[in-house]
# Entry
Amino acid sequence: MRSALVVRLRVLGVLVACAFAWVPGTFAGLPPFPDKGTLAADLRKLDRLIDDFGKTDGSFGLDYAEISLRLADEVGVRILHAVMVKCRAYTGEEPLVFVQLVTFLDRKPTLSLLRRYEKSRLEMERIYAHEFLTEIKMADPKAVAEFLRKARHKK
# Structure
């Protein structure tokens, strides 16, 4: 009787551990999904980023890159959750406006979080997580590092 109880408790422990391992951010130093207030603030910051993109005549030039870099520095990898929420709302290629922002985030946790979003039950999250992963992998880390160095040195 006791061994059956121990086996059941172990199985339950494994199931609970597996469930927590799937939740973004609970392990591996990934940022947890933000609370509603933080997420709303991050979404407003993304709206401002989109507005700023419109002010740059729809160009992904240096001005837009600096705005994206500032936001990446300010919020960090947590902003990726808000980006993915935005991706759910779009039907076209609008989320690609966030590629520079995602590229400027810390590489390792960003890649880990995007890989988790690739397994999302929501199609748009899966599609854009894969798209962002592709863009990050294509980005030249040395060129990104050089840009970051110059932008930070300029301040």
Remarks:
- The chain has a mean pLDDT of 78.
- Residues 65 and 155 are 14 Å apart (CA to CA).
- DSSP finds eight helices and no strands in the chain.
